[in-house]
Design brief:
41% of the residues lie in helices and 22% in strands. It is of the alpha/beta class. α13 packs across α14 and α15 packs parallel to α17. The structure holds ligand C2E and magnesium ion (MG) (2 copies).
Amino acid sequence: MRPDVLQEQDDLPPESPISAVSILFNGNPLAIWIYDAITFQFLDANESALSQYGYTRVDFLQLTLSDVVLSTQQPSLGSDDGDRVRSQANVVQRHLRSDGTQIDVAVRSNDVSYGGRPCKLVIAEDVTERRHVDAELIQMAHHDALTGLPNRMLLSDRMAQALSTAQRLKHKTAVISIDLDHFKKVNDWYGHAIGDAYLKHVAGLLTSRLRGMDTVARMGGDEFAIVLGEISTVESAGLVGKMLLQALNKPTVIGGYTIQPRGSLGIAIYPEHGSDMDEVWRCADAAMYRAKRAGGNRYIVAGPDASSSADDSAALDKRLREMLEKERLLLHYQLQYSPNDAVRGMEALLRMQDLGQGYVSPDRIIARAEDNGMIYPVGRCVVEEVCRQMDSWKSVSASPMRVAVNVSPSQLMRKEFASEVADSLAKWKIDPSCLEMEITERAILNFDEISTEMHELAGMGVRFAVDDFGTGYSSLQHLHRLPISTVKIDRSFVQRLCDSSSSYPIVKAIIAVGHSMKMEVIAEGVEQEEQRTILDRLGCDGMQGYLFAKPMSPEEISQALGKAHPNTDTDHKISPPSIRQPASRQVRSISA
Ligand code: C2E
Ligand code: MG
Ligand code: MG
């Protein structure tokens, strides 16, 4: 059927219009009608058109275009909009049937002259069913049959859209990879029907918690993915992760069984974790696996390491500021032992909980604080907190404990540092000799800038230790110009003590020269009994490491001190591991 044939004829003979048109009309399964291009009055229609629209011929010929074509799509009378119908060859319009139902119609229109009047001949094919089937096919191709969620294919479209919007509007977008924990058990224990219902429950739950601009997709099995259309900060993506985890964690009853949903979430953000969505997705997936490996039921924001999740620099700055405003930094403490198994003291280590329930590495916090100028108030706050904590331990410990704090060179370069430390010591009535300051070997290279404050503090009785010794290109000889009483051998040497590429000669030399300079030498990072034996033999004065104890919260330390107290007459005996008792069983905490 080629309507342009009519156009080529240009004018249907006025005296015999019916016969000319009837060639086209009769027996044609497609609906065809002719209407007046000026009044829009229908002038003729074939049987297929009458049955398609549900009218008798008489009734149909009393109608105009506006009775059939939905108002929003019909050309207006008196305008040349009728031409639009022509230019809209093969467009799909919504038409009205006599019973009020609507149908989708693919329309082709051609100008014809009919009885000398300018008219339009329209072929109107009902494509409602076809479109419905098409829509079904599209839905099936892009959605997961069980949950109705977008599938992997649609997700990649949505990711591409999210990326291009983010690039255009210069904002962030995030993807979350979710894997349900123990889904196989649900299937095995309760059967596949319950497993399916559980997946639908999770799908509904995730969808209900997110915004319209976000996409929740099922990747297959128990894997889901989310695209967060627009987020302002990395931290806010972490908050979404937290919120989803909380939502998931509510027990639900399915088929009479109570199921406790749990999931592992990995979150990655564009542009922080990748320049395209494939890369961002890989990061999110890797973070999800880290969350799984860490025991599941948690979320992790992609980052250089798992513990530095849920923060970018700006978010870290903000949290540091908040902690400073509240004047409460979180510190954990790691015990140090003397060779006679007595507790020598402990080291205070800065902690900041990240949003994925792990800890942000203190190295990262300190590096950030150095960068943004907050190192001084942070360091100041650490000293104050340690003094406060030492005061609170007076009631549980027989004699005062020595606590080491890590101090950054920029703190020692400030001329008010010593007097502020003195204030804290006085405020909490702490013997200055119980406070040890750890400075890194590299800090010593700034000898001129730090020596004044160091000497002032040492004059009060505060002790100094050189941390991570052996890594800072300095030499023991330089130390005598500063009031240093302790050297801490870096854990990299301790770890290689028993290897083939042994650090034994270096460790031996450090201990010997340290002693000759009347310094205590302690080893950090002691993890193995064998290392401890060698260090003991070399005359090391103290040891710190996972073999003895991991860093603990103040409460755990209080408990340990409290337990030690009743039996203590001379020393702090906090169940140090002995060679006869495997040390791993003695470690009380895994809080680091
Ligand atoms: P550091 O002063 O050398 O602290 C010892 C680090 O070694 C701690 O890591 C501790 O958890 C870890 N460690 C202890 N025993 C073992 C062991 O047996 N094996 C292994 N593999 N590691 C062990 P953490 O807590 O991550 O601290 C890292 C660094 O962050 C510290 O190194 C210190 O330089 C810095 N830092 C921590 N808190 C503060 C602070 O309040 N102020 C300053 N300026 N720096 C801090
Ligand atoms: Mg240290
Ligand atoms: Mg160290």
